[in-house]
Amino acid sequence: MRLPLPRPRSLAGQLFAMQVVLMAAVVAGCAVFAYVTDRAQAEETARRQSQATASAVADSPSVVAAARSADPSAVLQPYAEALRGHAGVTFVVIMAPDGTRWTHPEPAQIGRTYLGHIDRAVRGETFSETHLGVLGPSVRTVAPVFDHGRVVALVSAGITIEKISEQMREQVTALFGMAGAALALGGAGTYVINARLRRHTKGMNATELSRLHDYHEAALHAVREGLVMLDGQRRIALINDGARELLGLGPDAVGRPAAELGLPAPLTGALLSSEPRVDELHLTDERVLVVNTRPVVGGERRGTVVTLRDRTELQALSGELDSERGFTEALRSQAHEAANRLHTVVSLIELGRVEEAVGFATAELELAQALTDRVVSAVGEPVLAALLLGKAAQANERGVELVLTETSRIDDGVLPVSLPSRDLVTILGNLVDNAVEAAGGTPSARVTVTALARDGELLLQVGDSGPGVRPEDRAAVLDRGWSTRGPGRGLGLALVHQAVTRASGTLTLAGSPLGGAEFTARLPLRRAAAARTAAEVGA
C-alpha cells in the first residue's frame, strides 16, 4: 500500500518558518556579538581598574614611608586589604623590588616571591598583563613606587578572570533573557502577519499559487468575451484582450479611471454603478454590447467585475431578419390586396360590367406599377429599392402613404464597398419604421423619403406627419432606450446613429415640412479608384 505523500506546506507556513529561522539566526548572532564585545570590554575595564588602583597605591606617601620601615607588612597588609575591598579588585600585592611579597589576600603567601613579571616595573615602567597567579588567571597591573627617583617597592593590583566571568555570566543571563523575549515577540508578530497572509492565500502553497496564476492568465486570454475588473476607486485593475477589443482600448488601459476611458455615457454609468446590472444592451461607436456588472463586496466596496458580450453580429442578423420579415409581411399584404382586387374584378365580370372591371383593374395596375417604376428608376441600388418597396406595402397596410421624393436618385454601382448593405438596411429601415409608426393614426398620414447620391455623399432623409420630437428631447433622442412608445423600445435610433458613425457620417434631426420629425443621414462615398481599376484590369 502506497502512503499518500504529505501536502507541501502552505506559502504562509513556509514564510513563517523562514522568518522564524531568520529571526532566530539574527537574535543569536546579535547575542554572540554582544557577548564577545562585552567580554572584551569587561577585560579592558578590569585592566583600567587595576591600573588605576596600582597607580594610586604607588603614589601614596604612606606606602613610601612603610617601605622604609623595618616591617613593611605590618603597616601595608591592613592598608592593602582595606583598599582591595573599596577599589573592587581581587588583590593588591605590595612587594619589595626583588619580588618578595609584603601583602597578599592570603596571609600565608606573605614573604614568598611574586608570581609574575616585574622586570619592566623595576626599570620604572607601569605595565599590565594577564598572568596565572596564586588566585588563578588574572588581569593585573604592576606599578613602581618611587622614593626620590629610586624604585623602593612594587605594587600589583588585579582582578581574576573568574571574577570577570562571574560578572559576564550575569550580563549574559540578562542578554539571553532579552534575546528570548525579542525572539518570542518577533515570532508572535510574525505568526499574526502570516495568519493574515494564510487567509488571503486560502492556505495554498507556492506551487498551487503559481499554477492558479498560470490557469488565470490562460483563461483570461482564451475567452472571447470581455472581462474588466475595477478596483474600489473605479480604476481598471484587470482587463483581458476581448474587453480591449470590444471597448477599443489600448495597452495602457490598466490603472486608468473608468470615467476617463472615453466610452459612451450610458456605458460609463453602467461601469460606475454600485448596483448590479444584468444583460443590459449598450452601444459604442461600432458595437452592440451586452453588459453584466456585479460589485465585489467584503465589508467594504472592493471593486466591480464587468463582463461584456458582443452582440453586434447578432443584432445585425436580427435587423436583417426583421427586414426579411417585413418583406414577407409586405408580400402577404400585397397578395391579400391582390386577391381582394381579383375578386372584385371577377365579381364585376359576373355581373356583366366588363368595362368597369377593366377600368378598375387597369387603375390598380397603373397605381402599383407607378410606385414600382418610380422606385426602380430612381434607386438603382437593389437592396434599397427592395427595402423601399417592402416598406411602402407595409405603410399602405397601416394607412400611411410612403412617398419617394422627385429629387431622389441613386445609380447602381455608386455606393462603395466600404458601405455595406447591412448598414443601409439598418439606417433607412429603422428611420422609415419610426416615421410610419409616428405618422400612423394622424390625418393625411404620410412619410417622405429622399435617397440621393451626389457630390461624393449619400443623403438619406425621412420625414413624417406625426407629432414630432419636443425640443427638450432632441439631445437625448439618439441615446439607447429613448422612446415615446414605452419601455423595451428605443434601440432603433441608437443603432442608426451607430451605423452612421461607423461610416464616418452625420445624423441630424429637424422639423419636417409635413409637421413631424425629419431625420437626415449624410454618409461620405469613399470609392477607391485603385480598387475599381484593379477590378477592370482583372476583367
Features of this protein?
membrane; Beta-Lactamase; 539 residues; nucleotide-binding; rod-shaped; five-stranded mixed sheet
Question: How do the helices and strands line up, and which of them pair or pack?
Answer:
Layout: H1 11-58, H2 61-68, H3 72-87, E1 91-95, H4 119-122, E2 127-133, E3 136-147, E4 150-160, H5 161-200, H6 206-222, E5 226-231, E6 236-239, H7 241-247, H8 265-272, E7 277-283, E8 288-297, E9 301-310, H9 312-350, H10 354-378, H11 382-397, E10 401-404, H12 421-439, E11 446-454, E12 457-464, H13 492-502, E13 506-511, E14 517-524, H14 529-538
Parallel strand pairs: 10-11
Antiparallel strand pairs: 1-4, 2-3, 3-4, 5-6, 5-9, 7-8, 8-9, 11-12, 12-14, 13-14
Helix pairs in contact: 1-5, 2-3, 9-10, 9-11, 9-12, 10-11, 11-12, 12-13
